[in-house]
Every structure is written in structure tokens, then in C-alpha cells.
Amino acid sequence: MLLLPTTMPDAAASARLRTWQAEIDAKPTYSERVDAAKAKFKQRNTRTNATFQKVKAALTAMCSGARRCVYCEDSVADEVEHIAPKDLYPEFVFVWDNYVYACGPCNGPKNNRYAVFGSNGSLIEVTRRSGGPVVPPISGRPGLINPRIDNPALLFDLDLIDTFVLLPKENLDATNRARADFTLDLLDLNRDVLLEARRTAYGSYRARLFEYRHKRDGGAGAVELDTLIKGLKAMPHPTVFAEMQRSHLDVPELTVLFGTIPEALQW
Ligand SMILES: [Zn+2]
Q: How far is the CA of 119 from the centre of ligand 1 (A)?
């Protein structure tokens, strides 16, 4: 997971989202706002809805590879995901800044789970239990890391040596450590298939770097080299490449490889 580029739907779609949000906000009670948020989002988030077509196009521009999920960077993103769940936060159901494009395996288990920091600094799950009272969650700083605004590269390390597990950085304070742990658990970001996919991506990035070096040293022109760079940057699992760049001095084969392609540290 990486900090996402800033994109927006066009002015008409943005205005429509604000109008729809105002409709929800105008409902007199919280439970009515929750019900309306769920119903209206389901009604409008369709393949043929012009506003959501533009929303999805803008969300696609945040994704790596062939529209890969912003959380796992592996599966196709096909669900407009509310970072703060609409069941708990109807005031954000049509708010652009609350959307990312995610895959089913990430979004499904996440569902309506959420947590915030309480006044004593501990992380408290505010997920509404089935049949529980429909009341607003307590307020507090979100536990979930939000790649629209938080930089995950400052919070996680990826083990390239052996396991390909995503880990909280060692030097985090207690709050960020709790956020990193909660996010890894909520999105199940170390599921077996992801470890295997990151390992494969590492090999693919390495192979592309070899190809680039071979072509460059053979006298390839700028256009051809640029195409190779764009191809590398269009791959899934950009977190793997970012970690290869960041920790190249800690991994002997990467020290050698980037030593011969120093320009790749800036890609
Ligand atoms: Zn995913």
C-alpha cells in the first residue's frame, strides 16, 4: 500500500456528489441518515450511473497496474469502498475523499469494521454488531490507515529477504503501531496469496531491471528505454518496487543491481 496520487472526478460529478450528500445530511435522525445512505448508495452506484462512471474513472487513476486494488495491489479493484464505512458514517457516504477502489477479498472482510482512538489513547472498535443500536460511533482519530492521506511507506516495511510480509516499522510510536497492526489485520494484508504474489513481483521487477540495463548498455534510444520504464511502473505491487528502491543497500543483489542502474532509484 502506497500513498495514492490525488485525482478528482470532473466538476459536474463532484457537484452531484455534494448534492446527494446534502440529501442524506438533511434527514432528521442518525438512523434515518444511515438507512438513506445505504439505500441511496446502492441505488446510484451502478454501471450505468453517469456520476459513478466518472467516480470510477477517477478512482482507477489511483490504482496500480491494470486497476489493481489500492490496498493489496494484487486483485482487480471492482468495488467503490468507503474508507469510513457508510453504515457508521452516513455523513461521508457521497464524499469523494472517503472513496478508494478496492477488491472483494479486501473489502469483504473489512465490511463495516472500524476503530477509533478513545480519549485514553487506546484503540476502540466501533463496529456495529448485528442487531445493535443504531447510534453514532464515538469520535476519535481513525485507526485505519488511509492511503488517500497517510503515507504507508512511513508506517510499514516489506521483508524482501525472506517472507514478503508487510510489517509495522520498528520505530513507530504507540499510536501508529496500533494503527499499522489494525490495518494489517482488518485488510488481511499478509494473506498467503499476497506473500506469493509479492515474491513473484519482486522477481518480475528484477527481470525488468536486467532487461533495461541490457538494452541501455546495448545502445537503445531514449524512446525505447522510456517504454521499458513505463512498463515497469505499470506493474502491480508497486509497494514491492518502492521497497526495493528504499532498502537496496540492505539486500546484496539489489545493491549490485541498483549500483549499475542508479537512475532506477528515482523512477
Ligand atoms: Zn485488495
A: 32
The residue ranges of the chain whose pLDDT is under 70 are none
Q: Residue 143 Cα, ligand 1 centroid: separation in angstroms?
A: 18
Which pLDDT does position 109 carry in this prediction? 83
What is the residue extent of each domain of the chain? 11-187, 192-266
CA of 103 to the centre of ligand 1 (A): 4
Task: Give the Å distance between the CA of 243 and the centre of ligand 1.
Answer: 19
Q: Looking at residue 24, what is its pLDDT?
A: 98
Number of Cβ within a 10 Å radius of residue 222: 7
Q: Give the Å distance between the CA of 76 and the centre of ligand 1.
A: 7
pLDDT of residue 112: 86
Assign 3-class secondary structure to the chain.
Answer: CCCCCCCCCCHHHHHHHHHHHHHHHCCCCHHHHHHHHHHHHHHHCCCCCHHHHHHHHHHHCCCCCCCECCCCCCCECCEEEECCCCCCCHHHCCCHHHEEEECHHHHHHHCCCCEEECCCCCEEECCCCCCCCCCCCCCCCECCCCCCCCCHHHCEEECCCCCCCEEECCCCCHHHHHHHHHHHHHHCCCCHHHHHHHHHHHHHHHHHHHHHHHHHHCCCCHHHHHHHHHHHHCCCCHHHHHHHHHCCCCCHHHHHHHHHCHHHHHC
What is the per-residue pLDDT for 129? 87
How far is the centre of ligand 1, averaged over its atoms, from the C-alpha of 73 (Å)?
A: 6
Confidence at residue 111, expressed as pLDDT on a 0 to 100 scale? 82
pLDDT digits (tens, 9 = 90+) for 105-130: 998 888 889 999 999 999 999 999 88
